[in-house]
Amino acid sequence: MVEAILIDLFSLPANLQNNIQGLLCNTLETIEKCSSVPAPFVYIMCCQSQGSEWKGEQESLLPALRDFQSLKERLEVVHALTTAAALYIIKQRLDEEDLSVIKVILSPLRKDIMKVYIDHLFTAVYHFEFEDLQVAFDCENLQIAEPQTEGQMQDIALIQSEIQMYLESLPSLNGELTILRSSLIPDDIFLHGFTTRTGGISYIPTLSSCNLFSSSKRRDPQVVVKENLRRLAKAAGFNPETFHRVKIDHANAVCIMGKTEPDSYDGIVTNQKGVTIAAPGADCIPVLFADPVRKACGAAHSGWKGTLLGVSMATVNAMVSEYGCNLKDILVVLGPSVGPCCYKLPHELAKEFHRIDPTCVRLFDSTDPYIDIRRATRILLESGGILPENIQDDSVTDHNESVTFCTACHPDKFYSHFRDGTNFGTQIGFISIKD
Q1: 207 and 70 within one domain
Q2: Which residues pair with 361 in a beta bridge?
Q3: 306 in Cβ contact with 299 (< 8 Å)
Q4: Longest C-alpha distance within the chain, in Å?
Q5: How much is the pLDDT for 16?
Q6: Pairing of strands 276-281, 427-433
Q7: Distance (Å, rounded) from C-alpha 251 to C-alpha 235?
Q8: Which of 174, 218, 167 is nearest to 197 (CA)?
Q9: How many domains, the chain?
Q10: Residue 173 falls within a domain, yes or no?
Q11: I need a labelling partner for 398 at 20 to 30 A (CA). Which of 180, 203, 297, 338 fits?
């Protein structure tokens, strides 16, 4: 069932823009008569040219809306300079109301270009239906409506550029972009850090604001994540074009930069200068590895599955075998992740952590014991030959916690899947070798 209707008037030539009130009356009559939803949300996209009389006030179209009381309270007119700007504003309204099924009424000649915008600005959470504008209006004049040029309609790069420019113009939300750094990793050799949730443009509460991961199940599209990454890269000082993030499988495969990339992997290592590698985390541990002697580094994503499968030691072993690293030289930092204060697993899974060491489990006899995946990671690393003093876990070594915060305990600083549910945001740990 359609939850919202989007009327695209961007393609109207100037002479029809002057009669926009009449056109809206015809369209709204059709919606009011035919809609299966008693009072659907209706959004009207109009082009606002530079210096034009259209200032974006909904009041300018009120004469066309007075007769549609059933729609009026859920109807909004959106004036914008570009299609990207108008669609993004409407996307915000859809997300505020948690709407996912949208009918788009538009000129047939705008359909292909609109689909490109939608593919970039929305994810698979949303479902779009399309209806021809001239059918809805029953107005022959609308059949001449068309994009500015055929070339623009076909030029995806132009649309991407328009979207990027608009997103770059948006202000940062919820404070400045903040990067946490470890004193264990020498900053004269490595560039590294762990992100927090502030300083990006993601606006959905559980994703706000510096979300750095997009998926088909969440409402943050890849273009927004890319813009958040661009802002992070600018603040941190790395090149976003040479940025590589692990492809999560919750296992222990490791990618060696420069070799054939696996389909999925939770660890990544490199000795190439200027290449930034990263691991995400939203309760799972983003783990960073640095060898200042051999000048090599790594990153791993370690959730409960990856911890049990030994992803951190697999990353260490890759550094040893590929770059000749010595175990005693490798430094390891555990980033923000869910702590044993908050994290529970079913008893059957808790047994696996209990086998690593009984101190990894609290209230072991309960149905859902508390699990310390950080302690388990440390124990496995130390068993593998990493020196205890070369492992930073602030929840143990520094009660002020400069890096290893509990993500679930700090909603103002970090995302947490455990705390926020399905539509959660993601922070990352990143590292590179300086040129």
Answers
A1: no
A2: 371
A3: no
A4: 78
A5: 55
A6: antiparallel
A7: 31
A8: 174
A9: 2
A10: no
A11: 297
**Other Cβ atoms within 10 Å of 236 Cβ, number:** 18
Peptide bond into 209 cis (omega under 30): yes
Cα separation of 164 and 381, whole Å?
42
- 265: helix, coil or strand? strand
Tokens of 30: 């059709």
User: Is the per-residue pLDDT at 384 higher than 90?
Assistant: yes
Asked if 220 and 159 sit in the same domain, the reply is no
114 compared with 154, residue with greater pLDDT: 114
Q: Which domain holds residue 294?
A: 179-433
Residue 178: exposure state from Cβ atoms within 10 A (0-12, 13-18, ≥19):
middle
Q: What is the DSSP letter of 247?
A: B
Same domain, 163 and 184: no
Residues 337 and 429 both lie in one domain: yes
Q: What pLDDT does 9 receive?
A: 83
Alpha-carbon distance 200 to 390, whole Å? 32
Check residue 260 and report its DSSP letter: P
With cut-offs at 50, 70 and 90, classify the pLDDT of residue 79.
Answer: confident
The two structure tokens encoding residue 23: 């056109």
Q: Is 146 exposed, middle or buried (0-12, 13-18, 19+ CB in 10 A)?
A: middle
Indicate the pLDDT class of residue 35, thresholds 50, 70 and 90: low
Alpha helices in 35-183 (DSSP H): 62-65, 69-72, 83-96, 111-121, 133-137, 150-154, 156-169
